[in-house]
Predict the structure.
Amino acid sequence: MGSYNIIVKTEEIRRRVQEGDYSAAQKIMDTIPLRKVKNIADLGLFTDIYIQNERYDEAMELLNRIYKKSKTRRTLYQMVYASIGRKNIADAERFLAEYEQAAPNDFNIYIFRYKIDKLKKEPYIILIDSLKKLKNHTYMEKWAYELAKLYYKAEMEKECIRECSDLILWFGEGSYVEKAKILKAYYSGEVDKDEIIESLKNRAMKTSEATDTQSQEDEQDTDEDKALSEEDKVLDEESPDMGEDNDLSTVHETIEDEIEDAVSLTLHEGPEDRVLDELAENVGKDVEEFMTTGQSDIYKPPTEEEAGTDMDIYKFIKTENKNEDLEKLEKLAENLGVDIYQIFGNFLHVVSIQKQLARCLELIMSKHTKSVQMIITGAPCSGKTTLAKDIAIFLNRTGKLKTSRIAKISAIKLNEIDILSMKEELRNSCLVIENASDLKKPTIDKLLELIKYFHGEIAVIFEENKKNMNKVFRQCPKLMELFKNRIHLPAYTEEDLLGFAYSYIFLREYKIQPLAHSVLKDGVRKIIESSEKEKRLENISKYVQNAMTSADLRTGKQLPKLAAEGRLADVDVLSLLPEDFTYEITT
């Protein structure tokens, strides 16, 4: 196959990956002689596709080629992931040790440690320790439920019930919450084996009926239709076999056997995982995240470490908006040993925010106060939650809080929860309350009691608009004294919105070529003219993201040719050109 055909197919593969269609990308990739592919970026892309399709041996072959030339954090992450997929414990341990040196603060280290120890069949207490460390770093519902199951298997009844209760309280609803409710109910005797079996039987019967209906419909299909249907079919490995050789009674027996195994603890992972998951899927809902810092365990190509202080974001903000407030922030950051541009780079180009941020951070870090409570006001979609996350990171990095964990909840939902019963779960967390004016007086009293109890070991952030927040102050004057740190996100000007576009580009380590500046400005102006005020910031971020995607595709097409000609230095991989800003503007 010629190099031109490889380039064309590689570009098509990138498009399929961006659409999330890794199966189609794999089919195209299988037609490429990978031994002819030399470009590191393309090999990394192909590795991601192999991993997504669980072809770990082939992924590792490519990774070994990449590893000889590039031992980046990204490569090491992939090598640990693929080694675990291959069940190669020695390789997984070796590459994890290297990854820990490259990314010592990454929470994925605890997940990798847990998975490796699980392959080694380490005692439950070892596995539990890894997930407890993960929980202290970042609280994610999937791994919280996994921790609860470990407690169950280890016959640690109180810990299991407590972990299930924590998960239910923190996340409120979703598939893992439903699973936790089932496990808690079963363990505490609220539901018995027969009830679980009956629920599973009902599910099995519905599935069987659906299968029979589909079989009848398939009899009218052509041979071509059947072939396509088989190619596209996705089998659920965790579901009971519903093949034509199994009648419903056999299915019932299979489920009963699984339940019997589920209630008898073993030293290895048992079918109780499948049983609980099966039942929970039947009543599960779409997950509405309560904790905003959680991430799923679905494999995603990792990003590189944050760049150093020579990024264009620093030059952009310092050059354009240098003033007394920015100098105060720089001096404060220098004294604290943190990077103010990295933490608050999304907002530092807005002069009014600089002033408010300088005042609040100085007050927070004052030796004469332990008040870290804050109010962020502004219009919908003005960036209130993004700023709240940045504040949580700042509090953690400056030692005010031991974690950067965030719990976000609406005021209406908080009114229904006994917040005082969650004291220890909330310690050293940042509690973000959306639409704070909906808080009822008893809830406000409990919040005040909680803040007093922790004496600086919790940060509460109210999100509201200015008018409604003033009503809350009139109803509860005590809040005015306690919530002294206040930032109002203003109605953004055209210049502010353009600054957000530049910040979005620079913080993601892209550059913009001189000729593209006017195109970007025109695009932002059109968005402002055609979008509702609350949609402008969101649409600008989409517009810039589309430009980055275009640049990625263009670069992917250029690299193989330039590499073959020995002219890799002629292309700036992360540069945005005028033609990259040609995508339709979402309004």
About this structure: The chain has a mean pLDDT of 75. The radius of gyration is 27 Å.
